[in-house]
Write a structure and sequence with these properties.
2 domains; 6-stranded antiparallel β-sheet; alpha+beta; Beta-Lactamase; 434 Repressor (Amino-terminal Domain)
Length: 266
């Protein structure tokens, strides 16, 4: 990512999050008419315990010389979520992006294959490199479809999208927030740019994109689909593997879905 792209996203992110915090949220008495929505820059600086000039420079996209402690103090002042805090650390260069590795280790693949629940190995650009038999069974995936991009296959392909039914927007919302985070970190990545263009071309999804929600891929999220084995409700748990950039995602079903899966795989 270029320095200019980082600065641009840092400016937008801080301005947006500052506008979301009302004075009442942080115990500041509202007096007179306010010209800005949310907090003023000097109020954020005061809450973070830093100089106004420091915060103004940061919101202008200049993170040069800003310590991690200062970034965390600003995060607290803006009441950022854990995902947003991690995002801000990346934007300020206090949490560098990992170097990409093409292929996951044999150990990670064997762990995935040993699981009884649907599981797959995914990259930072949402490419599914491997998936196990239960995942193929639930999502109706054939051998020659792998590898594939998870966003394109599970949310944009007509057959897979139909599995979400009326829950489509509910199911895709956390994915959009995760992809928002990924695009902000890597705005020039061709795969992420392509996914962004596809999503915002969809009238149903563009509104979700414009809410500017940020979520870390490691945050669990729930989903319900009408799968090849019937209604399948699960919580998606992403497990990062130290030393690898690809991660293992496990779809942990509820009791009823677990029973359906067991019957279907006998």
């Amino acid at each position: 990512m270029s320095d200019q792209a980082l600065k641009s996203e840092l400016r937008r992110f801080l301005k947006d999050r500052r506008a979301r915090v009302s004075p009442a949220d942080v115990g500041i008495a509202a007096t007179g008419r306010r010209r800005v929505r949310g907090l003023r820059r000097e109020e954020v600086a005061d809450l973070a315990g830093i100089g106004v000039s420091w915060y103004t420079s940061l919101e202008s996209g200049d993170a040069e010389g800003v310590s991690e402690a200062t970034v965390l103090a600003v995060s607290d002042a803006l009441r950022l979520t854990d995902s947003e805090r991690k995002y801000l650390l990346v934007l300020t260069g206090r949490s560098p992006l990992p170097v990409e590795v093409d292929e996951p280790s044999v150990l990670l693949v064997e762990t995935m294959d040993a699981l009884a629940f649907p599981a797959y190995i995914i990259t930072a650009t949402w490419d599914v490199l491997h998936c196990n038999a239960p995942f193929r069974r639930v999502w109706g995936i054939v051998d020659d479809e792998v590898p594939f991009n998870a966003v394109e296959r599970l949310f944009m392909a007509p057959a897979a999208r139909a599995m979400h039914g009326e829950r489509f927007l509910e199911n895709v919302a956390p994915v959009v927030a995760m992809l928002r985070s990924a695009v902000g970190r890597r705005p020039h990545d061709p795969t992420l740019r392509r996914l962004h263009e596809q999503l915002v071309a969809d009238p149903e999804i563009v509104a979700l994109w414009e809410t500017y929600e940020i979520s870390d891929p490691l945050v669990p999220n729930a989903c319900t689909i009408e799968s090849a084995i019937g209604t399948f409700r699960y919580d998606a748990l992403t497990l990062a593997n130290p030393g690898e950039t690809s991660a293992l995602v496990v779809q942990i079903p509820d009791v009823a879905s677990r029973d359906r899966l067991a019957r279907a795989t006998r």
